[in-house]
Structure formats: C-alpha cells, structure tokens
Design brief:
Blueprint: H1 2-21, H2 30-43, H3 48-60, H4 64-77, H5 82-94, H6 98-111, H7 116-132, E1 136-149, E2 160-163, E3 166-169, E4 177-191, E5 199-211, E6 219-233, E7 237-253, E8 256-271, E9 276-289, E10 316-328, E11 333-346, E12 353-366, E13 377-390, E14 404-417, E15 422-433, E16 442-454
Antiparallel strand pairs: 1-4, 1-16, 2-3, 4-5, 5-6, 6-7, 7-8, 8-9, 9-10, 10-11, 11-12, 12-13, 13-14, 14-15, 15-16
Helix pairs in contact: 2-3, 3-4, 4-5, 5-6, 5-7, 6-7
Amino acid sequence: MFAYRAAPRLVGALFAAFTLFSPALAQEDPRAEQARLAAYIQHNPTDYEATYRYVLLSTELRDYEAGIGALERILMFNPNLSRARKELGLLYARLGAYELSAQHLRKALAEGELDPVQVAQIEAQLPDIEKRTQANRLYLRMHVGLRAQSNANFFPTNSLFQVGGVGVASAAARKGDVNSFQLVQAAHDLDFQNARGDQLETRVTGYATQQFRLPQYSVALFAGSIGPRIHIAPDLYPGLSVKPYVTGAVALLGGTNYLNAGGAGMSFGAELTRDLWFEPGAEWRAIWVNPTAGYLGYSGYSGFSPYSTVSTLATGDVVTGYLSSSYRLTNDLRLEGRAAYTRAWAGNPQQSSDQVDLQAMLRYEIDPPFLIIPRRWTIAPYGRYTHLAFDAANPVINPLVARRDNVWIGGLMVDLPVTAYFGFAGNFEYARNDSNIPNFKTENVSVSFGPTAKF
C-alpha cells in the first residue's frame, strides 16, 4: 500500500522535470518537416546543407535509417565529403553496426578535411566504437572528490530516542562532516564469438570514503558479479537474453570488516524496441554482519555490541525480486526506473523485514557550452522511495511498536566531460526518513563534486 501511495509522487516529480528539460516537446510536426526536406533533397542531391539538416532532424526523430540513406546518397555524388562520412559513421554506431561505423570514422579522419571540432568529436567516440568490435572489452571509470553532509552521524532529527519504550532526549546532536571519496567501476565483456552475441560479463565496483571529523563512519565497499549473457533466440527475438550470475561484496566500517555477502541471481534482458528495454530478475544473498564493528567509536572493541540488536542490517538471508527498465523519450531524454521487493530473514524477528523500493531517473543530454568539448553533458534529476517494515517490535527500543520506515530521496546528478577521457561529475541530494520510531527519523543534505576519468 505504501508503494502505491509513493508512486504518484515520484511520477509527478519526474513528469515536471520532463516538461522542464524537454524543449523537443515544443516542436511542431517534425515529421512533416522531415518529409518536406526529403522531397527537396531528392531533387537537389548536391544541396549538402539541406541534406545535413535532414540528417539532423532524422537523428532527433531516431529515424537513423533515413539519415543513413541520405548520407550514402550524397557520398555517391561526392565520395570526398569528410563531414558526411563522419555523420554516417556516427549513425551506424547508433544502429550497433560498429565495424562499419569505425571504417567510416577512420576514413573521415584520414582525409584530413575536418575542422578541429569535428576531429575532436570523432576522437572522443572512435575508441569506444572500436572497442565494441573486439572480443575482449574492458571499460573503466574513476571518480574522486569531496562530499559534504549535514548529518554525517545519522542522528535523529529532534535528538529524541526511545529505550524500552521510554523517550529520552540526547545531549548530543547531529554533526555535519566533509569526506573525500574514491569510486572505481570496471566492466569486462568477453565475447564468445559464436555468432549469437553471447558473452561473459564481469562487473567490479570499489568505493571508499575518509571522514574528516568522524573517522568511525568512514566506509569501504568492494562488490562484484560475473556470469554469461546468453541470447535465447537471436534469430527470432534478437533482444531477448538471460544472465545467470554469482555475486559478492565486502564492506568495512571505521576500518573494521562490517559486512560480507555472497549469492547468486538471474536476470532476463528484453530489448523490445530500439528505445524500450526491460530487465526483470531475482537474487539471493547470504550476509554476515559484524556485531561489534565501530562500537564505541573505534574498531578495537572486541565485546558484544548492544547496537547489533537494533541495527537495520543483521546476519541472515536476503532475497530480492526486481524489474529495471529504460525508455528513450526523445533523442536527448531517457527515463530509467527500478522497482524491487526484498525479504530479509535474520536470527531475530525484530530484524527480519520486508522492503519495497521504487527508483526513477531522467537523463537529459545537452550540448556543452564550447564546441571543442567532444562529449555531451548530462543532467539527471532522480527520486527514490523505500518502505521498510520489520516483523516484530524490538524490546530494546519499544516493545509495543514494530518499526516502519518511509525513506524519501531526491537529487540531481551532473556529468560534465571536458575531453574524450576526463571531466567532472557532481551530485546534490536530500534524504529524509519518516520512521515511526524517533531513533530512526533522520534528514540529510549532501553535495559532492570531483574529477572523473573514463577509459
């Protein structure tokens, strides 16, 4: 029921962002303009500027085949049009014809008639396109920077706690802090070269923070998964695939091992159209949570922590079912979403729970302010709602009330590439937990920014 109440708010917020960030909606009958240009260039094949306008409009309409046909036609009249060959190569890449795309882009560079902006555009795209033609592909992204939080110690909003059902006002208060962070994401695809598109996919993520004032809240996370993606019927349904995989994770808190997890899952990829993609799946994980990590503010404590019985996470098993999706609304705007249900079983019923999670993001691509910047910039507003319900009341906190959390998160991410490999990224986020237990009512505002590298 909580998920149904939350969904309209997420949809409404994202629709507002869609209206704000989508000037393409204001176009009047672009199909009619495309048809008019098509008729004109059919009788005027050497009017190259009109052809380029037609190709640009066809690209915005995601009618890539029409743009390719127009470019190939003018190259028949003049094979030395480097700009036309560049645009043709980029359109073939959109269709997934990477070998043909790379051939045209390399030839456009070799002809030496492009301006510096066009050369930079090719040099930014060509390495990724050529990589997609290889059987052994490695992608790497790194992001470092600083992050500021208003509530780095996750303290209750009103400094109120319940202990055994009795309200207690704490003399302490929430504390803001700044931390440095490092993020590394690696993806490796090994093509089986069996003419079906099957491949072995490996994903690895490493993330670490160093808190300046509250070192006991510094974290480190290492996670990975590996499994084959197998296309079920590539001739009949080329966009349908299945991926069984194994996964694992290790997390540290305050320099001490806090959580270990391992399990397996299976997902199904369904690319229904060029613009619409779904991925339903399910995953099981066994997790172990260290009951003493970070107790009393440092990692040297070796006794039993009373916080282990009130923590959200506990040793046990977790099963998650999910549905991820992506839909390209316009050539510049993509809507991404995820819905998930998680069941956690722990040794204590007060730490066993049901969780419903809804996420959505709008990715809006814009042209950078300077033409020499080869990659487009991305602005991405997002929202998330999580409802968490525990099986039983926790007598340590309140023996009569079982914990219920409603977490609301909203934010904005930006990705600002400057060169083909380097750029900057940032994030602004507001998070609020409306819990029925005052111990867990929290608010937090965070801002992060730093350089990125992509290879």
